[in-house]
Design brief:
The protein is an alpha+beta fold and 246 residues long. It has three domains: 73 residues, Alpha-Beta Plaits, CATH 3.30.70; 71 residues, no CATH class; 36 residues, no CATH class. The chain has four helices and eleven strands; from the N terminus they run E-E-E-E-H-E-E-H-E-E-E-H-E-E-H. The protein starts with a strand and ends in a 38-residue tail after the last helix. This is CCHC-type domain-containing protein. It comes from Rhipicephalus sanguineus (Brown dog tick). One of its GO terms (molecular function) is zinc ion binding.
Length: 246
Amino acid sequence: MASEMAGARQCPREGGTRVVTMPPPKEHFFNVRTPPGTSVHEVIDAIEALSVQHHGGFDFQVGVNSIGADQVLLETGGLSLGTITVPLVPVARQVASVTCLYLPCYVPDNEVVTGLKSYGTTLKIEEARYKDRPIFVPEPVGGHRATFEYRGVRRLCRRCNLEGHFKVECDTPHCARCGVFGHRTDSCTQPCRRRGGAHAARKTYSMAAAMDVDQFPALGATPAIGQTQRRLTTLRPAKRPKPSDG
């Protein structure tokens, strides 16, 4: 694959000895996909680059020569090309500090490592206490609903897991028919999740076969005049025939 290079390394000579400068670390390189028609010179002008390599098509790999330029790219997260900003993807693995909140103290550290395994490798765990109550993101860890705080975290409600509000002011309707947030029970048309009928799951015969009343009356209450007392229906085991004598 043909490639174009800009910003070649210099190799000065001192006393007849050739001195080769060391290449920058992998953490100083980023992959970027530019709009159609973008040239190498436009990418060089948009960044304090040590090198720009064209990987074919719209893909480029840029490298910076200082930690300051690297931090600027990590904080901005994009490369400005005229009026368009394209995202940058770091080549090396990035280290992020993640804070875990609302996790019981008796949960071991290995459960936390297991809960975060799908997101990356946990390098170390430090314990700390915070006076304030920051906003969180729920995540199951060892059967507990823990929360994590990090840069760029999505602000979610602890009740409905939706953005834009907190639990104390949450008014998102919850459907008792399908068990999800976002709509009321009387407007839900989902079939029963147990039997597939047109009734709600809590009206399934396997759950309501032991009773045939809408609600239980108070103990010792006398039915009003003209009101019919509904009888409680229970399921009893079938009688087994006794073995005949002789």
